[in-house]
Automatic annotation (TrEMBL):
Gene3D superfamilies in alphabetical order: 3.40.50.970
A Pfam family reported for this protein in Swiss-Prot or TrEMBL: E1_dh
Organism of origin: Azospirillum isscasi
Domain Dehydrogenase E1 component: 34-311
Protein name per its UniProtKB record: Thiamine pyrophosphate-dependent dehydrogenase E1 component subunit alpha
Cofactor: thiamine diphosphate
Length: 315
């Protein structure tokens, strides 16, 4: 086994991070690389779960990669803050480029981004935080955005449609509006919360949910990462320059199950979700897509191997 310091240095090096995120590539290539990386990493996590290699549960964002990549690339990673939830791997990878640290974390290894104690849902790295309590991150995001306001920073908080049933979200919208907090609420509406279709629990429209609080809305229905990035950039500019909260609604599709095997949707409904897969939508516009896919597979292979070599976190 190699020394932990050497493994940690390899997993956390800044240069690796930029290469993993494809920051030197054209925008289309960069976004494609990040989306493919998220997809391959999450598919591998599901495989690893089935062999008992993970510590705890996992939720994947397969089908929703364009939201993470489109929104997070509209931010300044060194200044702005991201809050995420149970379905956080895509947000985390797009923010950090830390693939080995993610695998190690979810596998309960000391090399993990939270030393193997946080697991899949509780990641903390630089200005990125995730927590599995639905709605719990909304007040935390408003507080951190208020604290960072003087720096000119923007805070983004991702939520799902089911989380619009949590009262803490509305208290957060209210205070964000009253205090002029530079926070962008991003609602990824995949139409279902675990196994409950939104029509059974949510009244009213979600795209303008924040307007009664005087919060400006931006809305998109689709899976083209370029469109999402353009709209998110407008929203982030507005939040930063006006020092006001905003609401970015994205109608999206979850292709995979809620967590592992728990998909109660009909085959037709799942096929409809697959028809809006963001990867093929961008692939046709990326010249060297096959090279990018091979690179992403190699990154994931090496991340898993690195994570497997690290000691298991104990106690
Ligand atoms: C307060 C709270 N209640 C219940 C749960 C269990 N839970 C985890 S994810 C989830 C569904 C979340 O749905 P949504 O907000 O639409 O996000 P999605 O899973 O669709 O991404 C539930 C009920 C939780 N994590 N926190």
């Amino acid at each position: 086994m190699r020394g932990l310091a050497e493994l940690a240095a390899k997993a956390g090096s800044r240069d690796d991070e930029n290469a993993v995120l494809g920051l030197d590539l054209s925008q289309a290539e960069q976004f494609y690389q990040q989306m493919v990386l998220i997809r391959y990493a999450e598919e591998r996590l599901l495989d690893l779960f089935s062999t008992g290699a993970l510590n705890g549960t996992t939720h994947t964002s397969i089908g929703q990669e364009a939201n993470a990549v489109g929104v997070i690339n509209a931010l300044d990673r060194s200044l702005d803050t991201v809050w995420s939830h149970h379905r956080c791997h895509g947000h985390f990878i797009a923010y950090s480029g830390q693939v080995a640290s993610l695998f190690a974390e979810v596998m309960g290894r000391t090399l993990g981004v939270c030393r193997g104690r946080g697991g899949s849902q509780h990641l903390c790295y630089r200005n990125f935080y995730s927590n599995g309590i639905q709605g719990g991150i909304a007040p935390l995001a408003v507080g951190s955005a208020l604290g960072d306001r003087a720096k000119g920073a923007v805070t983004v908080v991702f939520i799902g449609d089911g989380t619009t049933g949590e009262g803490a979200l509305y208290e957060s919208l209210n205070m964000a509006a009253v205090w002029n907090v530079p926070v962008l609420f991003v609602l990824e509406d995949n139409g279902i919360a675990q196994t409950t279709p939104k029509e059974l629990t949510l009244a009213g429209a979600l795209d303008r949910r924040a307007e009664p609080f005087g919060i400006r809305s931006f809305a998109y229905d689709g899976a083209d990462v370029m469109d999402i990035h353009a709209l998110a950039s407008d929203a982030v500019r507005y939040v930063r320059h006006e020092s006001r909260p905003a609401w970015l609604y994205i109608r999206t599709e979850r292709i995979g199950p809620h967590s592992k095997g728990d998909d109660t949707r009909s085959p037709e409904r799942i096929a409809a979700a697959r028809a809006r897969d963001p990867l093929p939508i961008l692939r046709s516009r990326v010249a060297n897509a096959a090279d990018i896919e091979s690179r992403c597979m190699a990154i994931v292979d090496s991340a898993v191997s690195l994570a497997q070599q690290a000691p298991i976190a104990r106690g």
